[in-house]
Amino acid sequence: MLFFEFNKEKKVIELVIQHVNKVDECLRTAIKTVEAYLAEKKSEAKTLSHRVDRTETEADHITHSIRDTLFSGAYLPRVREDIHRLVESMDRVANAAENCCDFFLNQRPEIPDALKSRFLAVANESLGTISPLKEAIFHYFQKRGPIEVTRQHAKAISASESNVDKLEWDLIKDIFTSPLDQSHKIHLKQCLNSIVEVSDRVEDAGDQFALVVLKMAV
């Protein structure tokens, strides 16, 4: 019985790693989508956006497999629910990346040339917050070293989020003090919101991951 349960837990870990890789792929492709859009390569951006959609769907399929394995008895109940919530929070990260790409390709915001590099910087920072979270999850579940290393990766998530907040605040200020008309300013702000929503969801996932670590350490 114990060997059977161990195999189930091992399968959950393998699936969680697959899921994190898929979410990471989703965000990396989303960054390329924004970059192509800002470079006025609309056809390329559209193709990349479709890839983001497909990758997000693939992540959903892995989520279902994790849920089924957890429901079959992997891990103790008090940990099982937290792992499920972690995976769901990662799904929301992928969803936010998909929504960001949809905003660009559906609403076609007109980004002034003078602000394009600023928007790209925010996108790289916001969607890049997945990196420390990915490292933290990999390090913990694959047990590659002391728990303190996992904590350091987790702290890096908050540092990245702070950088996003600073870039966002500066860009919003410059948008609304510019001579652009008010409707254009509001649309640019909505566009920016869709970008930083990703890092907000990553931060939420980081908080959920910290809870998993806390519960499993007891």
Explain how this protein is built:
The chain has 218 residues and is mainly α. Helix 1 (2-38) runs antiparallel to helix 5 (130-141) and helix 5 packs parallel to helix 7 (182-217). The two termini are 23 Å apart. It has helices at residues 2-38, 42-71, 77-107, 113-127, 130-141, 147-176, 182-217. It has one domain: Up-down Bundle (Methane Monooxygenase Hydroxylase, Chain G, domain 1), CATH 1.20.58.
- Uncertain residue ranges: 1-5
C-alpha end-to-end distance: 23 Å
Task: Describe the main β-sheet briefly.
Answer: none
Tally of DSSP helical segments: 7
**β-strand number:** 0
Q: Provide the residue-averaged pLDDT.
A: 88
Judged by helices, strands and strand pairing, the structural class is: mainly alpha
CATH architecture: Up-down Bundle
Helix content: over 70%
Radius of gyration (CA) equals 19 Å
Could you name the key traits of this structure?
Methane Monooxygenase Hydroxylase, Chain G, domain 1; 218 residues; mainly alpha; 7 helices; disordered N terminus; single chain
Entry summary:
With 218 residues, the protein is an all-alpha fold.
Secondary structure topology:
Blueprint: H1 2-38, H2 42-71, H3 77-107, H4 113-127, H5 130-141, H6 147-176, H7 182-217
